[in-house]
Specification:
There is one protein chain. The protein has helices at 3-14, 20-30, 36-45, 52-66, 78-81, 83-88, 119-136, 167-174, 180-189, 229-232, 238-246, 262-276, 311-318, 334-345, 359-368, 375-385, 413-421, 427-432, 442-451, 457-462, 467-470, and strands at residues 140-144, 150-153, 156-159, 191-199, 202-210, 215-222, 250-255, 280-285, 298-303, 325-328, 349-354, 386-396, 402-410. The protein has 474 residues and is of the alpha/beta class. Helix 1 packs across helix 4 (52-66), helix 2 (20-30) packs across helix 3 (36-45) and helix 14 packs across helix 16 (375-385). The longest helix is centred in the N-terminal third of the chain and has 18 residues, at 119-136. 43% of the residues are buried.
């Protein structure tokens, strides 16, 4: 462990913020190569520390003291006491270990010999399996009772073992990296979402659950670095997106199906604002996926659960926290949507995501959650505050990679009138005539990708609904 982590643990123990056992548990979970940020974040994610302000103060003090060396009373001193058993059990070196993905090989793990491994080896092996999965370029790892372990790469599923996981093995694997507090929550609720940080740049979004056969876990790989909007595939539409982000108030929506890259786009937008503005950005996420260190802006990231009760309570509090930009991980209920619209009307730029497929569906979903008595008022509010909607999909490309396809609605006078009057059927025609303002329809973008040779004909046909455009594909 680094000296700054040792100092943070020492200071936290001395001030009663955590215990020596808790610091050792978190240290084992994040691994010996973790940095101070990863260690501190895990203290919060594991619910070991609830006083975040005090933890931040101690972290700053730990950084200063680390320059002078390690603390005299090492908080991780109990670790050497465990060395003799490891030395005696020298057969551990002969135990199966995770095979690292090299030269395009799939990651692997000796699932068939899981019963022969001790808990520490299982935890270390799972950490390396996650790293190997990320290096391989997969987006997800699944460990589920009654199924063979599999990964998803470029939207395609593939198995990484022929061993079907038993209920005992699946529960042991998925609980291997949990603290005692997290394990208790998981077993009680039967559902648990959290962000797993193995280091400052080695993060994963985890969903644990139980199904009819037993425990299961889905691990989403979070990229180590935040790519720019141009790198994501928005080169042709970059000016339009940057114009949306140039506003200091209003509502911007990023939509798409599950796995379409909404979180990645959202992170890129926050990174752009962080680098080009000097504002206060508040994000509300479930859980925190991409960590945004403060650059030009002060970035406050809050997670539903450890930091706030719900999206709604976080948004309600955010209006009193002097924000300039509010980023909402998901607009999922009436209260959250209503608060987001109110915030966008009161001088804040609000950016949020929704699970919808196109601009018309997005507006209908946004508005239809309100009761009939509020429809006139809410349509007027949305018409005034909406800046734009970006709908995106990730399509299989001809070279095996994923290609971004998008639909963009930019608010103008015509769009505002349609929203006020509730005539969402006219959106398509208005967007077709608004190309010069940066608007585009998904069908036209997908056709263009096929014409440019980026996606095969069958993929294009599956993602185009317009019969006239479909007839152009041979």
């Amino acid at each position: 462990m680094n000296n700054d982590i040792r100092w943070l643990a020492r200071l936290g123990i001395d001030q009663g913020l955590l215990t020596g056992a808790q610091s050792l548990q978190v240290a084992r979970k994040v691994g010996a190569t973790a940095d101070l940020m990863a260690f501190a974040q895990e203290l919060i994610d594991s619910a070991v520390v609830t006083d975040v302000d005090q933890l931040e103060r101690l972290a700053e003090l730990a950084l200063a003291k680390a320059a002078t060396g390690a603390p005299a009373n090492d908080p991780f001193a109990p670790e050497p006491a465990a060395a003799p058993p490891r030395a005696v059990a020298s057969t551990r070196s002969s135990q199966p270990a995770v095979a690292v993905a090299v030269n395009g090989e799939q990651p692997s793990f000796p699932f068939e010999k899981l019963g022969q491994l001790d808990d520490e080896t299982v935890a270390a092996g799972l950490r390396e399996l996650l790293r190997a999965t990320a290096r391989y370029g997969a987006s997800d790892l699944h460990l589920s009772t009654g199924a063979r372990p599999f990964i998803r790469r470029n939207r395609v599923l593939s198995y990484i073992s022929d061993t079907t996981l038993t209920a005992t093995d699946a529960l042991r694997l998925n609980a291997a990296l949990l603290s005692d507090g997290q394990r208790k929550i998981y077993l009680q609720r039967k559902d648990y979402d959290y962000a797993l940080a193995l280091s400052g740049t080695d993060r994963y979004r985890v969903n644990l659950m139980f199904h009819k056969n037993g425990a299961a876990g889905a691990y989403r790989m979070i990229p180590a670095s935040t790519r720019t909007l141009a790198d994501l595939g928005y080169t042709k539409h970059l000016d339009t997106l940057l114009k949306m982000l140039s506003y200091h108030n209003g509502l911007v929506l990023i939509t798409g199906p599950v796995g379409s890259g909404k979180t990645t786009t959202l992170a890129s937008m926050v990174a752009h604002l962080n680098e080009t503005r000097t504002d206060h950005i508040i994000t509300v996420e479930d859980p925190i996926e991409v960590v945004q260190p403060a650059k030009g802006c002060n970035v406050t990231q809050r997670e539903v659960g450890p930091h706030t009760k719900s999206f709604f309570t976080a948004l309600k509090g955010a209006l009193r926290e002097d924000p300039d930009v509010i980023v909402i991980g998901e607009l999922r209920d009436l209260e959250t949507i209503e608060m987001a619209i109110s915030a966008s009307e009161t001088g804040h730029l609000v950016i949020g995501t929704m699970h919808t497929s196109d601009a018309a569906t997005t507006l209908n979903r946004l508005l239809d959650v309100f009761p009939p008595a509020q429809q006139t008022q809410i349509r007027a509010s949305v018409a005034e505050s909406l800046r734009g909607i970006v709908c995106q999909r990730l399509l299989p490309g001809v070279d095996g990679d994923l290609v971004l396809a998008c639909e963009i609605l930019v608010s103008n006078t015509a769009i505002q009138n349609l929203i006020r009057e509730g005539k969402s059927t006219g959106l398509r025609n208005t967007m077709e005539t608004g190309v010069k303002e940066g608007m585009c329809l998904m069908d036209n973008v997908v056709l263009g990708l096929w014409q440019d040779g980026k996606v095969p004909a069958d993929v294009a046909l599956a993602n185009i609904s317009n019969r006239v455009l479909r007839a152009k594909i041979k």
